[in-house]
Amino acid sequence: MALSNNTVATTSTGTLLLGPIPTGKTYAVVVMFFTNSSASAETLSVYAYPDASALAGTSVDNKNFLIKDLSIEGGDTFTFNAEKLLIDADDSIIAVSSGGNIQAVLSYTEI
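Given the sequence above, the corresponding structure tokens read:
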């Protein structure tokens, strides 16, 4: 298994958490942890995009939500592990936070 660690920014283009996946590869995202390191609540949105290259320099939109405007209390962690998320070539996972204090850790493996 591999890990991806990122601070989720507030930018309209989002923070790339994983991807784009290389041609001919498929990854299974096993779990995603989102920790709010601030004292105040922040919101988080997470997107799964089938072609992240199409997003280059553009804002994320209301498509492909995995999580929409989830409030995470200060010092709290949200765990996303209901199912395995399979992502193929060129797929990406992108996130946006309201305050820039959410830390994302993804555990994934190539299948």
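The CA atoms of residues 38 and 82 lie 26 Å apart. Try to locate this feature in the token string yourself.
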